[in-house]
Specification:
This protein is of the alpha/beta class. Helices cover 40% and strands 15% of the residues. The chain has helices at 6-24, 33-40, 56-66, 109-118, 133-142, 161-172; strands spanning 43-47, 70-74, 80-81, 84-85, 99-102, 124-127, 146-150. The strands form two sheets. The chain has a five-stranded parallel beta sheet with strand order 2-1-5-6-7, sandwiched between helices. The chain has a two-stranded antiparallel sheet with strand order 3-4.
Length: 176
């Protein structure tokens, strides 16, 4: 009987695939400077946590907190979410935060962006699903530097699990 290790074979196939891609498509760029600036910030307001705890915003806030970020939930009605004191808006956090991460439906994004501009916050991340053409118009009108259409979990260090693999693949194609 032949002793065959499928896990090692799959790993070798994957590594050969990645090696072939990297030789064919050399790394074209480094990480987007807006992303670098955002992930180097340590005090982040989070817009998009729910009281039920079932939204992506709750999971992302928990992960960011575990990675060493200071998290400041913004919720217009809740006093506390997931053990963190909430602020009703960005203005109440002026001077306490370096960045804002937004994960709400596009219809709710423009007022948050306007408030960010009002307090001079220029370190803004719109999670995938928060962007729309109308939101882009607001970004352009306000002249804000905003990371859009990207998942924070692929960039906030340390990057782990499937996010690390996905980041490696998009890095191969120069789209970090």
């Amino acid at each position: 009987m032949i002793d065959f290790d499928f896990e090692k074979v799959h790993y070798k196939i994957l590594m050969n695939f990645i090696k072939a891609l990297t030789s064919r498509y050399p790394k074209k760029s480094t990480m987007n400077p807006l992303i670098e600036q955002f992930v180097s910030s340590k005090r982040i307001a989070v817009v998009g946590m729910s009281r039920s705890g079932k939204k992506f915003g709750n999971m992302a806030a928990k992960e960011l907190k575990a990675k060493g970020y200071d998290i400041y939930p913004v919720h217009p009605e809740a006093a506390e979410i997931d053990g963190l004191a909430c602020s009703p808006n960005l203005s109440s956090l002026n001077g306490k935060i370096d960045a804002v991460w937004i994960s709400v439906p596009p219809a709710k994004v423009s007022p948050v962006l306007a408030e960010a501009a009002e307090i001079g916050l220029k370190n803004i991340w719109l999670q995938q699903g928060a962007w729309s053409a109308e939101v882009q118009q607001t970004i352009d009108q306000l002249g804000l530097p905003v990371v859009t259409k990207k998942c924070i979990m692929m960039y906030a260090p340390p990057v782990k699990s499937v996010h690390k693999f996905h980041r490696s693949i998009i890095g191969i194609f120069g789209r970090l």
